[in-house]
């Protein structure tokens, strides 16, 4: 079903006005910026196509590269490029410093509510300011498989100086397993080779978290 077939009250622009931008999906946000699709492709389909590689890839595409995408003319490209640059500038002005495990946990505290394990990486610059946070892996209720090469891929892409990794224990008990400690050591070894320090590995439970480096349980605030 195309956008024209959607009831007006359910269209992205109308929903944004009524409920706020936060209720829209990623594709709907891009659709609002683009306005229209092309013959044979709705604006939502075009938006989903643009977002297939993810926000980080889209945000790095130049106007010239975007102009090569079928369905994107100068008006759409300039609107999209301007919006992405606004996002970059807001991000730069709102950088947060991570100097303790508590700072890291505060950035991923929503993990306490997850029913499945998720593994995230917090990317930091040379001053310890947050460059970004990415969810890299999702698993079951008691296990998530983590590949070190994928952990460091966004760190290399964003020129991060260091990282903090984090995951949750849906059981509620954040105490690290033997596998958690072994993974931490593997990541530290990889980071040493790449020149990207692994500052900590924090595990989030229902009401407490653990810093593997500090080795202590701390209540979530």
Q: What separation lies between the terminal Cα atoms? A: 45 Å
Q: Quickly give the structural class.
A: alpha+beta
CATH architecture of the largest domain: 3-Layer(aba) Sandwich
Overall form: elongated
Strand order of the largest sheet: 2-1-3-4-5-6
**Percent helix among the residues?**
40-55%
Structurally, the number of domains stands at: 2
> How many strands in all?
6
CATH topology of the largest domain: Cytidine Deaminase, domain 2
The main sheet comes to: 6 strands, mixed
Q: What is the CATH superfamily label of the largest domain? A: Cytidine Deaminase, domain 2
Radius of gyration: 20 Å
Low-confidence stretches: none
Give a topology summary.
Blueprint: H1 12-19, H2 26-34, H3 43-51, H4 55-60, H5 63-66, H6 74-93, H7 101-107, E1 118-124, E2 130-138, H8 148-157, E3 162-168, H9 178-194, E4 197-204, E5 208-211, E6 216-219
What does this molecule look like?
The chain has helices spanning 12-19, 26-34, 43-51, 55-60, 63-66, 74-93, 101-107, 148-157, 178-194, and strands at 118-124, 130-138, 162-168, 197-204, 208-211, 216-219. By secondary structure, it is α+β, with helices and mostly antiparallel strands. 41% of the residues lie in helices and 18% in strands. The protein has a 6-stranded mixed β-sheet with strand order 2-1-3-4-5-6, sandwiched between helices. It folds into 2 domains: 3-93; 101-219, 3-Layer(aba) Sandwich (Cytidine Deaminase, domain 2), CATH 3.40.140. It is elongated and about 55 Å long.
């Amino acid at each position: 079903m195309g956008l024209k077939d959607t009831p007006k009250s359910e269209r992205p622009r109308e929903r944004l006005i009524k409920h706020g931008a936060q209720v829209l999906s990623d594709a709907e946000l891009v659709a609002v910026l683009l306005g229209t699709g092309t013959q044979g492709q709705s604006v939502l389909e075009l938006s989903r196509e643009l977002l297939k590689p993810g926000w980080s890839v889209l945000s790095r595409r130049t106007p010239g590269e975007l102009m090569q995408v079928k369905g994107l003319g100068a008006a759409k490209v300039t609107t999209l490029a301007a919006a992405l640059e606004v996002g970059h500038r807001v991000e730069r002005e709102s950088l947060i410093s991570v100097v303790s495990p508590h700072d890291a946990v505060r950035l991923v505290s929503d993990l306490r509510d997850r029913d499945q394990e998720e593994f995230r990486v917090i990317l930091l610059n040379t001053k310890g300011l947050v460059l970004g946070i990415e969810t890299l892996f999702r698993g079951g209720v008691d296990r998530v498989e983590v590949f070190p090469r994928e952990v460091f891929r966004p760190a290399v892409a964003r020129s991060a100086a260091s990282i903090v990794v984090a995951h949750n224990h849906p059981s509620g008990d954040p105490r690290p397993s033997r596998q958690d400690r072994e993974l931490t050591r593997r990541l530290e070894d990889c980071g040493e080779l790449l020149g990207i320090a692994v500052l900590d590995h924090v595990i989030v439970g229902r009401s407490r978290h653990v810093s593997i480096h500090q080795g202590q349980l701390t209540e979530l605030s």
